[in-house]
Amino acid sequence: MDKAKPYSGPPILSFVGNSGSGKTAYLEKLIPLLKAKGLRLGIVKSDAHDFDIDIPGKDSWRFTQAGADITVIASPQKMALIEKWEEKENLEQLALRIKNADLILSEGFRRDFPPKIEIRRAACGHEKLFEQGQLFAVVTDIPESKVSRDDSVVYLPLDDPQPLVELITKYIKTYNAGR
User: Fold this and answer.
1) Is the pLDDT of residue 30 over 90?
2) Angle between helices 23-36 and 162-177 (to 10 degrees)
3) How many CB atoms lie within 10 A of CB 106?
4) Cβ–Cβ under 8 Å, residues 16 and 138
5) What's the CATH fold of domain 12-51+87-177?
6) Angstrom distance (rounded) from CA 136 to CA 158
7) DSSP string spanning 74-140?
8) What pLDDT, in 10s, does the model give residues 107-116?
9) Neighbouring C-beta atoms of residue 111, cutoff 10 Å
10) What are the domain boundaries of the chain?
């Protein structure tokens, strides 16, 4: 991303946490609640492994194998874009590709810029992954008496995503007011 151009897309919040902390499961509960608020959501998932959504032998796979740099598969209900790249894009660059979203949620992207919502599960350890300036909130099942809390960070219950929905709704309004 060109450093001269500041990010101008919708707000982004990144869900981060240790492997097995329940990031995906939490997002599965959170997404319908945000949708019920009328929000159009974009999701960006970081994958450290090489994945392939193209099915060998299908037309789109054949086009990619033949040398297409970008292949789009479209139906009346959905679309997928497959693009080869020389260098992995950062979250900002990926987010700018998402059109008409009120909010972008990401899973992973620990090293990227946006505020982070850390999922901290007791079974995965009590140590924090990020410092207060990087955190939007901590979602945890660790009892208050068992973890050292930072007063400048909001701690929310892992078993109830509704308080985070309210916090996110306020964040979107503040973000949009500042644009």
Assistant:
1) yes
2) 70
3) 23
4) no
5) Rossmann fold (3.40.50)
6) 15
7) E-SS-EEEEE--SSPPPHHHHHTT--S-SEEEEE--TTSSS-EEEEE-GGG-S--SS-GGGEEEEEE
8) 988 888 779 9
9) 10
10) 12-51+87-177
CB 139 within 8 A of CB 26: yes
b/e burial code for range 132-162 (CB count within 10 A of at least 16 → b)? eebbbbbbbebeeeebeeeeebbbbebeebe
∠ CA 44-20-109 to the nearest 5 degrees?
A: 30
Provide the CA 11 distance to its chain's centre, in angstroms: 11
Highest mean pLDDT among 70-74, 100-104, 147-151: 100-104
The two tokens of residue 52 are: 């392939």
DSSP letter for 35, please: H
CA neighbor of 164 nearest in space, from 134, 140, 143? 140
Write out the two tokens for 174. 């503040």
DSSP secondary structure letter of residue 151: T
Contact between residue 102 and residue 13 where contact means Cβ atoms under 8 Å apart:
no
- Kind of pairing between the strands at 70-74 and 103-107: unpaired
Q: Which two tokens stand for residue 31?
A: 């997404």
d(CA 16, CA 13): 10
Q: What is the pTM of this model?
A: 0.86
